[in-house]
Structures are given as structure tokens and as C-alpha cells.
Inverse folding.
């Protein structure tokens, strides 16, 4: 059942896989879909697709890193030009206290905040814009942006690749065994996301 639901995505080949994953990674920051859809989910699925031989893992990593850098660059430019409008968005305004604290941290430790934010769903979506609003020097922003994208993109692509390889080892045993393993993987990923977001909220409070 689970495999049937995922088959349309897992059976993407070549440019289709690169285009879908790349778009989701780029759009996560550039148009703020990361607020509702964490980009690492798309990257992990892309890694699984590569493990099935439908895409090249090296090319996938390059696409993910490039799109992550590009998305953050657009987010920075949007923040620098239309910062006040971003802060007035309903969902963003509801977290104004968190945003104000993040702006303060960017002013004090800009590069570190940009790098670390790459690993948090909400912060990854909004920090590039906040860096633009704060007037963070572009070169300093890009250095942290590139470093974060390289580490994040490579790590999550390889995580998906490893998960896919583990899944393939038991897939031939029986459909039940493969569904059970995939179900466990889904539960673990969801659990990690929930725990991570709880920690984010605790930090924000």
C-alpha cells in the first residue's frame, strides 16, 4: 500500500527527479513554501530515487546545493527590497517575537545564524530574507549560504541514498516486509521532524 502511494515519485527518472527536487528546494526559501513543506523531505526522497538507479547521486547533490544557494540568494534579495511587506504577512507576523530575536542574532552573529538556520525548517525559510532586511553584507551572507548549502544538501541527499539502499535489501523478501520497513522509516522521519520543531519552539519561547 505505502509503496504504491510513493511509486509515482520514486519512479521519476533523470531530469524529472532533478527538476522536482530542485524546484522544491529553491521554492522553499524563494517563495516561502518551506513554512509548510520542509525542503529536506524532498531531498531525502531524491536520495531514495538515486539509490534506485533512476538518478545520479552526484548530479542530485549538485542540483540540490545549487538550488539551495539560489533560493537563499533570492530570499536575501527579496528581504532587502521588500522586507517590511514580508514581516506583515499573516503567518510571519504571528512569529514576530521570534523574528525580532533572529534579526538581533543576525546583527551580532550573521554568518553563524545563516549557516545554522539551514538546518531548521522555519528558520531556513525566513533567515535569508531577514539577513536582507538586516542589511547583512552580501559577501558575508553568501559565504555562509554556500557553506550551509554544501553541508545540508550533501548530508540529506546521502541520507536518502542510504535509506533507499536499506529499503532495497529487504524489498525482494516480500511486499509486507518492504511496507513495514518503509512504514518504520516514515515514522522515524516524522518523529525527528516533530522533535526538531518542538526544540525550535522551545528555543523561540
Amino acid at each position: 500500500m505505502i509503496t504504491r502511494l510513493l511509486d509515482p515519485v520514486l519512479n521519476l527518472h533523470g531530469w524529472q527527479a532533478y527538476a522536482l527536487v530542485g524546484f522544491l528546494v529553491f521554492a522553499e526559501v524563494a517563495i516561502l513554501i518551506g513554512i509548510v513543506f520542509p525542503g529536506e523531505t524532498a531531498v531525502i526522497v531524491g536520495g531514495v530515487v538515486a539509490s534506485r538507479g533512476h538518478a545520479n547521486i552526484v548530479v542530485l547533490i549538485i542540483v540540490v546545493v545549487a538550488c539551495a544557494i539560489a533560493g537563499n540568494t533570492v530570499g536575501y534579495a527579496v528581504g532587502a527590497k521588500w522586507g517590511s511587506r514580508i514581516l506583515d504577512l499573516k503567518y510571519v507576523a504571528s512569529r514576530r517575537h521570534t523574528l525580532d530575536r533572529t534579526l538581533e542574532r543576525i546583527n551580532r552573529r550573521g554568518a553563524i545564524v545563516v549557516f545554522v538556520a539551514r538546518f531548521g525548517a522555519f528558520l531556513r525559510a525566513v533567515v535569508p530574507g531577514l539577513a536582507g532586511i538586516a542589511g547583512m553584507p552580501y559577501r558575508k551572507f553568501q559565504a555562509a549560504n554556500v557553506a550551509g548549502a554544501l553541508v545540508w544538501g550533501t548530508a540529506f541527499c546521502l541520507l536518502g541514498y542510504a535509506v533507499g539502499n536499506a529499503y532495497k535489501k529487504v524489498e525482494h523478501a516480500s511486499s509486507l516486509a518492504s511496507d513495514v520497513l518503509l512504514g518504520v522509516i516514515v515514522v522515524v522521519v516524522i518523529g525527528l521532524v516533530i522533535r526538531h520543531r518542538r526544540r525550535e519552539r522551545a528555543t523561540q519561547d
Summary: The two ends are 40 Å apart (CA to CA). The chain has one domain: 2-204.
